[in-house]
Amino acid sequence: MKLSFAKAINRPENAKGNIIFFHPGGLPARGISQIAQSFPAYNFTYIEIRLVSSFINAFSPEGKQLNSLTQIAQEILSEIYDKNDLPSLFLGWSLGGAIAFEAAHLWQGSKKPVLCFLDSTGPHAADYFISKWFGEANFQAFLKTSGKSTLSELDASKWFSYSDKGMNLSFISKYFTMYLNALREVNIPLKPLNHSPISQTDFMTELMEEAIKYGAFDESLSADGFYKVFEAYKEGIIISMVIIISHTYQYYDGTLLLFKADNKDLGDSNEPPYMGWQKLFSKIHPVSVPYDHYAILSSEASEKYLIKEISDLLETI
């Protein structure tokens, strides 16, 4: 049975334009409803990428990539393309930014879509972000062992086989904690990054205890159940990485409104200011938002930061 990945939220008569939100899925996006309600005069469509069949089947069980970013974007457009030829705004969060970017290139309307990304990594920052997930030393060793010099040369299966032993657990624990906080609406504190070696067992035990303590999970949750949640999360990270780095990006003649989460609790002040999208747009308007990668989708962030900037952008199309 084919899953429906497109949800029409607004469909007003005499719509002023189209707003299409590309969301990876798997996380409540309360701010999205608030954005839709703030623009009732626009057709608003929500895309849940994890339900797109070409995304579900993007990799074989062995880790071989079967479907590209372009194929995912093509399937989405085949479902949602409305030949109304109205001005369009594509919003993309996280991986959704890269897919929105490709969908804009493939859009058949006479008016090119305007793009707005919410903390989305672009191709020119892939090395930086992946070295964070894996740890710089591990990442360079991985490239050397693989006999490759660039990310795009790596076979997807190598990423999956390497991820268990190669990922920087102290770094991913912070992202996973931020994810749990957004998913369960709790406030598990983010601990300082621990750069000393830590075993997978100790890591998972400590993380699970914190999650139960702050109400993210019930005490009846087994260690195996918690581990499956974490593995699904980690696999999603790897899939997103591979899809982003395996694509060849083309220049887009337009302006990008880029909301960048400050992620201050990660303790990293060297994050690329344009998140890897430089050289791909004629102009980028970056807006720093004092929320993390997941909380940027909260109702509070939408009300305080996103809606005003998006409203100003819509006035230009």
Query: How large a portion of the residues is in β-strands, by DSSP E?
Result: 5-15%
CATH class of the largest domain: Alpha Beta
Tally of structural domains: 2
Estimate the global geometry from the Cα principal axes.
globular
Low-confidence stretches: none
Overall pLDDT level: 84
Under CATH, the homologous superfamily of the largest domain reads: Alpha/Beta hydrolase fold, catalytic domain
Helix/strand order, N-terminal first: EEHEHHEHEHHHHHHEEH
**Name given to the CATH architecture of the largest domain:** 3-Layer(aba) Sandwich
Overall SS class: alpha/beta
CATH topology of the largest domain, anyone?
Rossmann fold
Quote the distance from N terminus to C terminus: 38 Å
Characterize the structure shown.
- By secondary structure, this protein is α/β, with parallel strands linked by helices.
- The protein has two domains: 6-122 and 249-314, Alpha/Beta hydrolase fold, catalytic domain (Rossmann fold, 3-Layer(aba) Sandwich); 127-243, no CATH class.
- The protein has eleven helices and seven strands.
- Strands 1-3-2-4-5-6-7 form a seven-stranded mixed sheet, with helices on both faces.
- Strand 2 (18-23), helix 1 and strand 3 (43-48) form a beta-alpha-beta unit.
- Helix 1 (30-38) packs parallel to helix 11 (299-314).
- The model has no long low-confidence stretch (mean pLDDT 84).
